[in-house]
Amino acid sequence: MKKKQTKSYKGYTYATWLIILVAWLIVTETNLVSSRLIPSPIQVVKTAGDIFINGYNGMSFWQHIGISLYRLIVSSFLAVLTAIPLGLMSGYFPRFRAVVDSLVQFYRPLPPLAYYTLLILWLGIDESPKIMLLYLAAFAPIYLSCVSAVRKIPIDYINNAESLGASKKDIFFTVILPGSLPDIFTGLRTAVGVAYTTLVSAEMVAATSGIGWMVIDASKYLKSDVMFVGIIFMGLTGILIDMGLRLVEKRVVFWKGRDES
After folding, report:
1. Cα dihedral sign for 246, 248, 250, 254?
2. 3-state secondary structure labels for all residues of the chain
3. pLDDT band for position 7 (50/70/90)?
4. Among the listed residues 172, 150, 152, 149, the one whose alpha carbon sits nearest the alpha carbon of residue 161
5. CB-side neighbour CA atoms (13 Å) of 170
6. First-residue to last-residue Cα distance in the chain
7. How confident is the model at residue 5 (pLDDT cuts 50, 70, 90)?
8. What is the pLDDT of residues 108-159, one digit of tens each?
9. Whole-angstrom Cα distance, residue 40 to residue 25?
10. What region holds the ABC transmembrane type-1 domain (predicted)?
11. At CA 153, angle to CA 241 and CA 144, rounded to 5?
C-alpha cells in the first residue's frame, strides 16, 4: 500500500521537473527571454561540459566543488560536535539554558554578511572566517532542535526513571539522548541546508575558489550559463547530502516512523 503511494508521488515529482524543463526549453528556444538572462538548457549543458573538462578561471571544476564541500563538511562537523551537547544540556538544565540560549537567540536572526567582515578582520582571509561563518549558520538549527527535543520528552519518562533509582547521568544517556535523536537529525538536515545556502555568502569576500565564488564571479561578467551550472550543481549536491543524512538517520534512529518524507 505504502509502495504504491510512494510510486505515485514520485510520478508527480518527475512530472513537475519535466514540465519545468520543457517550459525552460520553449521559453529560451523561441527567444521569449534573452539568453543573457536565461540561457537555454542546451547551452547550459555545453557550458557544463566545457567547465568539467577545462575548469573555470584556471582551476578544475572538481577543485572548486571540493573546496566548497571541505568548508561545508568541516563547519557542519564542528557544529554537530558543539551544538548537540550544548543543546541537550540547555534543554535538560534550565540554568544552563538561561546562559547559552540568549546568546544563540541574539546572533541567530543576524544576516551572515552583517558579521562576516568582522570575522575576516578577526580571523584573516584564509579558510578560518569562511568555516566560522558556516559553523555559526549550522550551529543554531542543531542547538534549537536539541533544546526542543529534550523539552518534548514526557516528564513521566523522567519521573519513572528516577523512581527506579536512575541517576541524572543515567537519565541523560538512556532517556534524554535516545528520545531526542529523531529531532536532532531533523535539525542536522536543516543545519546543513542553511550552511549550504550561506556558502555563497562565505565565498563572496576574500575567496578565489569554490562553487559559490564561481557563481559570484560569473555574475560580474553576466555569464548566466556558468551561474546556472553552479546553481544546478549546488542543488544536486545538496539533494545528495540530504539523501545521505536520511540514510544515516534510518540506520541510527531505526525506531522512527517511516511516514516522514
Report:
1. negative
2. CHHHHHHHHHHHHHHHHHHHHHHHHHHHHCCCCCCCCCCCHHHHHHHHHHHHHHCECCECHHHHHHHHHHHHHHHHHHHHHHHHHHHHHHHHCHHHHHHHHHHHHHHCCCCHHHHHHHHHHHHCCCHHHHHHHHHHHHHHHHHHHHHHHHHHCCHHHHHHHHHCCCCHHHHHHHHHHHHHHHHHHHHHHHHHHHHHHHHHHHCCCCCCCCHHHHHHHHHHCCCHHHHHHHHHHHHHHHHHHHHHHHHHHHHHCCCCCCCCC
3. low
4. 172
5. 11
6. 16
7. low
8. 888 887 888 888 889 888 888 989 999 999 999 999 999 999 888 888 888 8
9. 6
10. 65-249
11. 45
In the numeric block, the cell 549536491 is attached to: 237
Cell representation of residue 180? 531526542
Cell representation of residue 68: 566548497
Q: pTM score, two decimals? A: 0.81
Locus of grid cell 547559552: 100
Cell of residue 218, nine digits: 560569473
Q: Which residues, 6 or more positions from 203, have their beta carbon under 8 angstroms from its beta carbon?
A: 68, 130, 209, 210, 211, 212, 213, 216
Radius of gyration of the chain (CA): 22
Angle at 130 between CA 119 and CA 133, to 5 degrees: 65
Return the closest-CA partner of residue 198 out of 126, 246, 144, 132.
132
